[in-house]
Amino acid sequence: MKALIELFWFKYSQLQHAVKTGNEKLVSMLDREIEPALVAIMQKEACDTSELRSQFRFVVDLLREEADDRTCVLRQAHNLKLLLDRYFGTDETAAPFGIGPMAEAARPVPAPRVIEDGLLNEAILDSLPDRVAVVTTDYRYLYSNPLNAERLAEKPIDLVGRHIAEFIGAQRFEGRVKRHLDRCFAGEVIEYDYVSPRRGNATIRCRMTPCLSAAGNVLGAILVLQDVLETRDPMAA
Asked: How far is Cα 9 from Cα 117, in angstroms, rounded to an integer?
């Protein structure tokens, strides 16, 4: 598995360089070679927990690299779903890792994790107490933790690639959220409160932090949504 993944990233970096330098002949050649390298990784069945994690991490890293290309994001989200189904699906679809003690020990990495100084961090667990999402610069979900997806009546994987206006409405998106996201994409940390009708007019605090690649480029925004607990004077009537 390691050798296959290293081969892919070697070809991927060559392709990026060829595109940047305008070497069309090399781009064409590498385009033909990189697809079989990707297919080889996706088709290989992990033989132990380490390979299992490497395979999931590879797809997550590729999602992150191609975050600006919606088509690529959707494709990698599909690949991620295939891996989840293979190893952790039903008894009929799961491979040996889908059942038994090994499945309990091996946990997949279903999406980029967050939050440390704006960097995607795969060490943070999905069980964060707050709603967390990563939105790309074209306003589409790159990641959602289970709590946020549950509030939207979706599965985390099914949110990837979908525009946030689909869930909050075009009016609210254009009237408020878009301008906050644009400021966040420009490097600001934004925090504001809003009232959520779907939560019975509960007050929600939204914090937006620029989401950065390892190279320091802005991939999008990390959104953390928290219920605001109003404090009342116990002596008040």
From this structure: 26
Please report whether residue 36 resides in a domain: yes
Who's near 164: CB < 8 A, 6+ residues apart?
A: 135, 139, 140, 141, 173, 177
Question: Of 59, 89, 105, which closes a domain?
Answer: 105
Token pair listed for 125: 């667990």
The pLDDT value recorded for residue 215 is: 60
Nearest to 12 by CA among 129, 143, 31, 21: 31
Alpha carbon distances (Å) from 143 to 2, 19, 169, 223: 25, 28, 19, 10
Nearest residue to 181 via CA among 147, 142, 153, 236: 142
User: DSSP 3-state assignment of 188?
Assistant: coil
Task: Single out the residue of 136, 142, 137 nearest to residue 160, CA to CA.
Answer: 142
Same-domain check for residues 50 and 11: yes
Pick from 16-20, 86-90, 141-145: least confident: 86-90
Sheet containing strand 131-136, strands side by side: 141-144, 131-136, 218-227, 202-212, 190-196
Contact criterion met (CB below 8 Å) for 161 and 70: yes
Cα 150 → chain centroid:
16
- Look at the chain and report how many structural domains it folds into: 2
Q: Does some domain include residue 125?
A: no
Render pLDDT for 6-56 as a digit per residue (tens, 0 to 9): 888 888 888 888 888 888 888 888 888 888 888 888 888 888 878 888 888
Does the predicted TM-score (pTM) go above 0.90? no
